[in-house]
Model the fold of this input.
Amino acid sequence: MPKIFVIGGITDSMKSRLEPEFQLVYADDLESPKSWLEKNGDGVPYVLTNGHDGIEDDYFALLPNLKLISNYGVGYDAINVDMALEQNVLVTHTPGVLDAEVATTALLLLLSCFRELRANENHVRSGDWEAKGNFRLSRSADNRKIGILGMGRIGRAIAGKLAPFQPEIFYHARNKRNVPYRYFESLEAMAGEADALICITPGGESTRHLVNADILKALGPEGILINVSRGSVVDEKALIEALQNNALGAAGLDVFENEPHVPEALRLMENVVLVPHVGSATVETRRAMGDLAVDNLVRHFADGSVISAVPEMARGKPA
Ligand code: NAP
Ligand code: 8YV
Done:
């Protein structure tokens, strides 16, 4: 049976589909995954990983016969795709099947910020409602100007789910898309007009700190920042400063620069809603993602093809 080197956790349903056809070696069970690969890496054609763990660059040299890295997740910034191309290794991911779920997470955070869910909840839990009376009014989530940074699969799903709130939707990306929303070539100009900014681009160098102090300043003291993309997209230090100085109104964050570490300053603020990178984390959506990640491995073992290669695979090995 061909070996799959499994980096990070996988679901029972993925295990039960893979175990009859493959020998699974779990990096998490090994005292030193690197030492194991030094001895056995040449016998491993497959790696199964995820958006958090990716694969260490050093592992490529220890996997000379690697054919495919299947990523259980759509974002693959933790995989060095150039190294994979150089070594003729295919990389697949799970686009599409998680769009609706991540959009729900973005809305959950956005609505919680507008309606001050955390502060309202604290008012009840602390006993202040009974002791001090009614809580202050929050702000409506209806009829808002919402800027979306990244108008890909998930960006469009977010825009679709926002529709009942009758927003005016703006977007910024490097390219204008065929969508019925106003395009901004400048992220700063969009932030200046929007009530809330929702980040949903890929991670990696090209998007690193796209949301910096200038963008947060443009969003302004009433502005709301939602990040469901990657922690690297937002300059976390600048975000903390903006919130501490009341230069930004509120933030809803699913992703962080140094996960699972979340700075104490963010953990203490009542106007910040925090969830632990759970954008796609429901039983139903993880099942669909797991199925697609497994299907790519099964298909490749059967006939050498894959279902959902990352776009760079079409580019081929550099000349
Ligand atoms: P997608 O369909 O490839 O869309 C990506 C969008 O980002 C495109 O509109 C792209 O447009 C834009 N973009 C890329 N680089 C940019 C740049 N440098 N500046 C401005 N815009 C840029 O991807 P998707 O399926 O929607 O997924 C997006 C990302 O969401 C994933 O890569 C992942 O990081 C994140 N994600 C997070 C979770 C979670 O649990 N929080 C779950 C799933 C996905 P242009 O190419 O025209 O710029
Ligand atoms: C997951 C994600 O956290 O798909 C992505 O890019 O960030 C999430 O869906 C993860 O990759 C699943 O293991």
About this structure: The pocket of 2-keto-D-gluconic acid (ligand 2) is lined by residues 50-52, 72-75, 98, 277, 279-280 (CB under 6 Å).
